[in-house]
Amino acid sequence: MKINKGLPIGFVLILLILMAILLPKERFVRQSPVSGNQQETKSSFNVGTEDAVKRNLDDYIQTNGDVEALNTVQVFPDMSGKLVKSYVALGSEVRKGELIAEIDPSTPGVNYSLSPVYAPISGVICVVPLQPGTTVSLSSAVASIGDISSLEIASNIPEGYAGSLKIGLKADVFVDAYPGQRFSATLTRISPVVDPLSRTKEVFLSIENTGGQVEAGMFAKLKLYLKKHENSLSVSNEAVISSDLSSYVFVVNPDGTVS
To answer: What's phi and psi for 53, nearest 5 deg?
Structure first.
């Protein structure tokens, strides 16, 4: 900026003061050079360390499922009519061939003998049976019988894991009725198709030796083991630092620094 020499000195000083106030301050900051004898300051931190060790690791998926009787059948009458007698209730134990209900196929003006309904398998009544007086057809289930001595868990696995599913995979099973208690199960059946709506494959696992604690109808939490990695070099989860792009760990160098 040029200053007219004819201006009074006081006016010039006032103008310089106004410039110092109005102009951005960073324009007046002078960077002091670092002298040659100054050293870069290094920060030090106390951190915990651990040794990387080799161990066996498992790939697994956590999901949910429903406990069901392994063999469950619905019982249908041989004739349409009115259910006049039911000899079972929810939870009743029946044997194969046992009479469980009777149907009256009579119509107005025509009387017929009662049509018996027999249990096709031995087991327990799993669904509340129809009440006497109900009109039934050949497609009306009178009752549902399940063999609760053998249980299985039905679950749906995302299709992304379809390539890892195979018969014989093991799983840990947990139910709310017994917090912290673990039961064992084995994958026994896999659906050959993917459900196009849910994008999942249905699988079935048999439960091993629950001692009657796990019951049909319970909600189960599953930890299904997909693959085992033996003798793998590993560290604890706390030692791994993850970002959006990758995961990494710090390694201690001989001089005490890390990289």
So the answer is: -125, 160
CB 114 within 8 A of CB 84: yes
- What's the one-letter identity of residue 85? K
Three-state secondary-structure class, residue 253: coil
The dihedral through the CA atoms of 183, 189, 195, 200 has a sign that is: positive
The pairs formed by 172-179 with CB atoms below 8 angstroms and a separation of 24 or more are 172/222, 172/223, 173/205, 173/207, 173/214, 173/220, 173/221, 173/222, 174/220, 174/221, 174/222, 174/223, 175/67, 175/213, 175/214, 175/218, 175/219, 175/220, 175/221, 176/218, 176/219, 177/213, 177/218, 178/213
- Here the tokens at position 72 are 């469950």
- Mean pLDDT for 72-99 is 92
DSSP letters along 61-84, please? EEEEEEEEESSEEEE--SS-EEEE
Q: What is the pLDDT of residues 140-163, one digit of tens each?
A: 999 999 888 788 999 999 999 999
